[in-house]
Design a protein that fits this description.
- By secondary structure, the chain is α/β, with parallel strands linked by helices.
- It folds into 3 domains: about 150 residues, no CATH class; about 210 residues, Rossmann fold, CATH 3.40.50; about 80 residues, no CATH class.
- The protein is about 45% helix and about 15% strand.
- The chain contains 15 helices and 13 strands.
- The strands form 3 sheets. It has a 7-stranded mixed sheet with strand order 8-7-10-11-12-9-13, covered by helices on one side. Strands 1-6-5-4 form a 4-stranded antiparallel sheet, with helices on one face.
- It is elongated, with a radius of gyration of 32 Å.
- The relative contact order is 0.08.
- The structure holds adenosine-5'-triphosphate (ATP) and magnesium ion.
Length: about 475
């Protein structure tokens, strides 16, 4: 009856009128933003998690997904279900649905139906600003937080072919089981929590969202345990970077770009990895010699040097990374270096700003011992504690050694036997230290005598001459 043009005009007109009086705003979030996109929309995932956590109690028809390798069941709203949410007294409606797209090209036809899903938010028009500016951010943040909590965390290591391979990370160490000075522990915890919450702050000051910790101290004082405790506390993944199997700076960069957000990048025993220490100083010397050479020649020389050395990661490559040049592409990372010898490291590597916090893990003190006694023996106090406290001042013993003594190994062992075992070990250690000191003293004396003899001999020869 109607000419098609007129019909179209009329429909447009009706739509306009309806949208003018219709008091609601609708926003749709598709699972795949573009029809030809393979990448699942992050927002969709966050909304799904948010709704399943906050509204699934209210939705009547739910869909269960069992996550692979995980024992929990993940409930989400079924299709065409509606739930309401409240935010600051505002009512928001969410519906889930499926998009039917008959014109979908055959190429994408293998996609399962459920992969064309969407969530639609409806709110009153006058709430539009609050919903788009504040509520949606809240939903996305919450959704992301849920994802972090429920995901299985991984421990990644780099292999020879310059890729990360992962296993599930299940280290039992936590800040509760970590034995160290309680004040220091508190300080570290506060620092970590402040970091994990300061996304906006880092953005504001234009820094990439990362933080560096240097853990140093003798073997067996809990450096690796501390890293595991940090990862457990923040629920981050760990990337354990073995620098010696990274070929050169380019490979290093690639590995680093491959790391995900919310992770800790760990380089253990940095003093043993490569010749990072002092290398820069040598280079500087060379450079000043070559300052008057023209740049092309210089570059050629550098390349040649690199080839000769069989190309490897350099200190400056590592510094570049730590400075966030390459970590700028993604955020929320901790970088942790550990070493047994802090004095061996190039100061450039550990200056403040690169390594924000230097944490010393040291020999067992009384406070440390008390935590271990509580963890291993369930003991808060005992008459032998005083003796042990005194002995720990006199004798250096690592928490690892103390823990070893406190471990209940045989059925017949009890707390008192363990404490006595520890006292015995402390006595032995003290004796050992005494003998060592004596020997060292003797050697020094001998050396001193020898030097004196040398001087005497020289004087004699001068006199004779
Ligand atoms: N501070 C500590 N609190 C609790 N347990 C500790 C502590 N220090 C050491 N241990 C115990 O000793 C073991 C070895 O500690 P850890 O591997 O953390 O030492 P480390 O400092 O990393 O040593 P290394 O320098 O040799 O790598 C741990 O498995 C843990 O059980
Ligand atoms: Mg270690």
């Amino acid at each position: 009856l109607f000419p098609s043009e007129l019909r179209r005009d009329l429909r447009n007109y009706v739509n306009k009128v309806v949208s003018h009086v219709y008091p609601y705003v609708e926003i749709t979030f598709h699972e795949y933003q573009l029809d030809n996109s393979f990448e699942r929309s992050e927002a969709f995932g966050s909304i799904e998690r948010y709704l399943s956590a906050s509204s699934s109690k209210r939705a009547k028809r739910l869909k269960a997904n069992v996550i692979k390798g995980c024992k929990s069941v993940f409930l989400s709203m079924d299709e065409n279900e509606e739930v309401t949410d409240e935010f600051n007294g505002i009512k928001i409606w969410w519906t889930s649905g499926k998009k039917n797209n008959p014109q979908q090209p055959a190429f994408f036809a293998y996609r399962r139906d459920e992969e064309k899903r969407f969530y639609r938010l409806t709110c009153r028009r006058e709430h539009r600003d609050i919903v788009t500016n504040i509520y949606l951010k809240h939903v996305l943040d919450e959704g992301e937080a849920i994802a972090v909590k429920t995901r299985q965390r991984k421990l990644y290591t780099n292999n020879k072919s310059n890729m990360w391979s992962s296993i599930i990370f299940e280290h039992p160490s936590t800040f509760d089981t970590l034995a160290m000075d309680p004040e220091k522990k508190e300080e570290i915890l506060d620092d970590l929590i402040a970091f994990s919450k300061s996304k906006d702050y880092y953005k504001k000051v234009g820094k990439s969202w990362k933080r560096g910790y240097l853990l140093y101290g003798p073997p067996g004082t809990g450096k690796s345990s501390m890293i595991a405790a940090m990862a457990n506390h923040l629920e981050y993944d760990i990337y354990d970077l073995e620098l010696t199997s990274v070929k050169d700076n380019t490979d290093l960069r690639k590995l680093l770009i491959d790391t995900s957000s919310k992770s800790i990048i760990v380089i253990e025993d940095i003093d043993c990895s490569l010749h990072l220490t002092g290398q820069r100083k040598e280079k500087k010397k060379e450079e000043s010699k070559e300052d008057n050479k023209d740049p092309i020649q210089k570059k050629a020389k550098e390349e040649e040097d690199k080839m000769k050395k069989g190309s490897e990661v350099t200190l400056s490559g590592l510094l570049n990374f730590i400075d966030g040049l390459w970590s700028a592409c993604a955020s929320e990372r901790l970088i942790i270096l550990t070493t047994n010898y802090i004095e061996k490291l190039d100061p450039a590597l550990i200056r403040r700003g690169r390594m924000d916090m230097h944490i010393e893990m040291s020999y067992c003190c009384y406070e440390t011992f008390k935590v271990l006694a509580k963890n291993y023996l369930d003991l808060e106090s005992h008459e032998l504690f005083e003796t042990i406290s005194r002995m720990l001042v006199e004798t250096k013993m690592t928490p690892a050694d103390v823990a070893e003594n406190l471990m209940l190994k045989l059925d017949k062992e009890n707390a008192e036997i363990c404490l006595n075992k520890l006292i015995k070990s402390l006595e032995d250690a003290k004796e050992e230290a005494r003998v060592k000191a004596l020997e060292a003293g003797k050697k020094k004396e001998e050396n001193g005598e020898m030097e004196q003899e040398n001087i005497d001999a020289k004087e004699n020869s001068v006199m004779n001459a």
